[in-house]
């Protein structure tokens, strides 16, 4: 536990962390990777280049400082990050490395303002926070390994089948190379895939949501090919999987992880809202809900540009045909003329609160949403306008956590 003086010193740094946090985390990653390039085998290079990881870490450090006297209030965030750490294979001996370069970055950016007193307080606080992560992650490692069909680290899986779902999304059906038992998972969870892309100096690890329900003899991931543009670099792993990974090839997977899970205890109707490849965890949830409560109220809403980029429609309609309690609706932002002629969508444009209200007969429901950040911000804004309680909203970011409040609002 931290003493009162240390807590007060940490809290005194909150204003400067709010303004200088991203500068500190940029410096942190720069110096750490220079000294320990082997850590580039773990971190997502695309998120580093886009600055998303630096912003996410800055927000986490800020929240830790803000709640340093009530760390239990950020426990849900700690557990969310711990799931990712376990999935990536983060080890306890890596925490001192992070602590060293984080303190160095604070000193580098703040200069004389980073007094010995402030640095000492942050060293103590980091030790407490690191111990909390290590303890939680140790429990997660044990649970992942000791569950039926579980394993430690990364396990070899064979690509049993590769199936195109849309112009940009392809599914991979993965089975254990050793023929052993397959660990179950909660709908909404993900696995990490570790690959060595030819021509690249480091291994790369990416998380992909499991896109089919539990209980199958395989894991299925459905990957969007990220070709990149003038702003974003191409996704090296997604392009590799689309272009080079073939049936019969071997991929290395961590056991399922993640806290984006169905909250079954409330008994409320469920609304699943997805945009683009955010469809993947929703498909797993939809499969499970349809099997568990086919008569109950389930609303499935998917937003895509048009039918060419709309993945898994046939699968959703097959589920709907056997699930009387399911209503499925599609929102197209840029439908083709053929889409309009065939009336294959229910709403044209971007998802709006009024239309969402029409599609959801009982607003007192649990809402799960996932997709690109602007889409998630739009959904969250719509739920604000519909006065849906925050505790009935459940979501997951693809990549580092970000704000659900759009800039400028």
Structure description:
Residues 149-409 are annotated as: Reductase. Keywords: Detoxification, Dioxygenase, FAD, Flavoprotein, Heme, Iron, Metal-binding, NAD, NADP, Oxidoreductase, Oxygen transport, Transport. Residues 1-138 form the Globin domain. The record marks 29 as: Involved in heme-bound ligand stabilization and O-O bond activation. The chain has 409 residues and is of the alpha/beta class. The chain has three domains: 4-146, Globins (Globin-like); 155-253, Elongation Factor Tu (Ef-tu), domain 3, CATH 2.40.30; 264-396, Rossmann fold. Helix content is 42%, strand content 17%. The chain has 13 helices and twelve strands. The chain has helices spanning 4-12, 14-35, 45-50, 52-66, 75-88, 95-110, 116-146, 236-243, 279-292, 313-321, 337-342, 353-359, 373-385; strands at residues 155-164, 169-176, 190-195, 204-209, 219-224, 250-253, 270-275, 298-304, 326-332, 347-348, 366-370, 393-396. The strands form two sheets. Strands 4-3-6-1-2-5 form a six-stranded antiparallel β-sheet, sandwiched between helices. A six-stranded parallel β-sheet has the order 10-9-8-7-11-12, sandwiched between helices. Strand 1 (155-164) and strand 2 form a beta hairpin. The longest helix is centred in the first third of the chain and has 31 residues, at 116-146. The chain is globular, with a radius of gyration of 22 Å. The protein starts with a helix and ends in a 13-residue tail after the last strand.
